[in-house]
């Protein structure tokens, strides 16, 4: 029909459609329908053979292979070349030994010159190319995960539509939260995720049973593809972490947030990581020569934290504990005051093969003597409380934490009271100002003193981290312990 209309009404060279003029991939929203896979919304078991399609196109045959580069450039500049990734436009022609052809945009019909651009017309006229029909075969392996999911999942109301193409990846494990409408298709979805993501071998789905989420932020899950193997290895901020994803909390989407906080720490400072998990704040901080006392109540997190400290060689700076967070705040602060640590930073040796054994021993002694000794201060500069569901309830642990130590801080010295980095969930309100106000009120209630954004003594900042649910946000509130709290009589 389109070609017929062109023949009837077109008196000029055809325009290139906006959909194919630009470069696009198979996930493009305006991808021409001829490139979409066949649809089967009743598929209960993944049938890869179903996804076979022949796409009729036009191709420019080039007999002189020496001209391929120039002709391809011309067709690309005129936007006549097929621009759909990952389809490669250069193909074997088959009409003659060594002949090549270039696939053209779908609007071009090899038998209808009225669909040709001026560039195509000139190349044909000058015998540099000839146009022919070309049947492009697409299979399951060609389409993306998104394409296949769109073709098999049920059509649901637009307001609820959310194709589960997004997932969180932790090592070789993909984690999805499937809506109820997609549950009958969970095993197909799992298999497609494995097929289309080479680094994924296991796919799990969170089971939304009310009240089953544990105090350790772990969740019940079901394996929907691959083996039930959740022992993963992940890398973040130049550090390696090994843990069982089913037994500890980890969110790969928070890597930037972890870095934002630990980059606030300065070499030689002391940090108290109250709910440390497997160490995404503590271990990278240790690599930056920051003293960290890290803690987690979950025994599995504690074991993985210790392993990360050892494998990343930060044992001189990072220690691990397995205590209640409230108790840890108090004991770690007291132990830091009474037993600060030291870390030796040995000088680098320049070793020569000409040195004798005695020379080497002398060199090592000299380097050891010249080693820098970094001493842990007896006061924390930062407390990190990364348990957004309930960390705010632990703020009462700061009451009287520095009682009798007023002389160590401003105005008696230049040292400010420690900063608390508190993660918390907050209901979404009409404006951000209202959300900040409610956060301040909640903090004030739990810490036992009025906390305001504009209080110059608190250096308070509230930062949006991520949207957890449509009506639920995650924030990080950073503020100094109020003096009335820190120095209160216990």
TrEMBL record:
Superkingdom in the source lineage: Eukaryota
Binding residues annotated for S-adenosyl-L-methionine, in chain numbering: 258, 296-297, 324-325, 386
Gene Ontology CC terms: mitochondrial matrix; nucleus
Any GO MF annotation of the entry: tRNA (guanine(37)-N1)-methyltransferase activity
UniProt keyword list: Cytoplasm, Methyltransferase, Mitochondrion, Nucleus, S-adenosyl-L-methionine, Transferase, tRNA processing
Function: Specifically methylates the N1 position of guanosine-37 in various cytoplasmic and mitochondrial tRNAs. Methylation is not dependent on the nature of the nucleoside 5' of the target nucleoside. This is the first step in the biosynthesis of wybutosine (yW), a modified base adjacent to the anticodon of tRNAs and required for accurate decoding.
Entry similarity comment: Belongs to the class I-like SAM-binding methyltransferase superfamily. TRM5/TYW2 family. Belongs to the TRM5 / TYW2 family.
UniProt name for this protein: tRNA (guanine(37)-N1)-methyltransferase
Organism the protein comes from: Cladophialophora psammophila CBS 110553
Lineage, opening ranks: Eukaryota, Fungi, Dikarya, Ascomycota, Pezizomycotina
């Amino acid at each position: 029909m389109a070609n017929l209309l062109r023949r009837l009404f077109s008196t000029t060279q055809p325009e290139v459609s906006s959909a194919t003029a630009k470069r696009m991939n198979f996930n493009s929203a305006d991808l021409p329908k001829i490139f979409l896979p066949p649809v089967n919304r009743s598929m209960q078991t993944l049938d890869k053979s179903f996804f076979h399609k022949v796409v009729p196109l036009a191709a420019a045959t080039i007999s002189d292979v020496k001209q391929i580069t120039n002709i391809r450039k011309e067709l690309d500049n005129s936007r006549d070349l097929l621009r759909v990734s990952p389809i490669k436009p250069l193909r074997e022609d088959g009409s003659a030994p060594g002949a090549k052809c270039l696939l053209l945009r779908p609007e071009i019909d090899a038998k209808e010159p009225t669909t040709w651009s001026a560039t195509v017309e000139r190349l044909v006229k000058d015998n540099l190319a000839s146009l022919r029909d070309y049947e492009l075969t697409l299979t399951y392996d060609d389409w993306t995960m998104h394409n296949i999911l769109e073709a098999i999942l049920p059509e649901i109301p637009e307001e609820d539509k959310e194709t589960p193409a997004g997932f969180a990846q932790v090592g070789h494990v993909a984690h999805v939260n499937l809506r109820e409408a997609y549950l009958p298709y969970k095993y197909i979805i799992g298999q497609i995720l494995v097929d289309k993501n080479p680094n994924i071998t296991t796919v799990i789905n969170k089971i939304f049973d009310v009240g089953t989420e544990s105090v350790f932020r772990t969740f019940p899950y079901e394996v929907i593809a691959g083996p039930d193997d959740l022992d993963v290895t992940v890398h973040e901020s130049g550090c390696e972490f090994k843990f069982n994803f089913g037994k500890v909390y980890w969110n790969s989407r928070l890597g930037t947030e972890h870095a934002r906080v630990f980059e606030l720490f300065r070499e030689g400072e002391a940090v108290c990581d109250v709910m440390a998990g497997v160490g995404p704040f503590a271990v990278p901080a240790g690599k930056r020569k920051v003293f960290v006392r890290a803690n987690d109540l979950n025994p599995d997190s504690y074991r993985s934290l210790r392993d990360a400290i050892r494998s990343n060689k930060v044992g001189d700076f990072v220690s691990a504990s397995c205590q209640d967070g409230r108790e840890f705040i108090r004991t770690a602060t007291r132990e830091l005051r009474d037993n600060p640590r030291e870390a030796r930073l040995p000088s680098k040796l320049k070793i020569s093969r000409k040195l004798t054994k005695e020379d080497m021993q002398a060199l090592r002694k000299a380097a050891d003597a010249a080693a820098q000794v970094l001493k842990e201060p007896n006061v924390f500069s930062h407390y990190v409380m990364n348990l957004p569901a309930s960390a705010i309830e632990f703020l009462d642990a700061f009451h009287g934490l520095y009682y009798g130590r007023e002389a160590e801080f401003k105005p008696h010295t230049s040292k400010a009271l420690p900063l608390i980095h508190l993660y918390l969930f907050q209901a979404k309100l009409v404006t951000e100002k209202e959300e900040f106000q409610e956060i301040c009120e909640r903090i004030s209630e739990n810490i036992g003193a009025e906390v305001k954004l504009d209080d110059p003594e608190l250096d308070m900042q509230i930062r949006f981290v991520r949207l957890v649910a449509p009506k639920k946000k995650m924030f990080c509130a950073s503020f100094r312990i109020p003096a009335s709290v820190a120095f209160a009589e216990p």
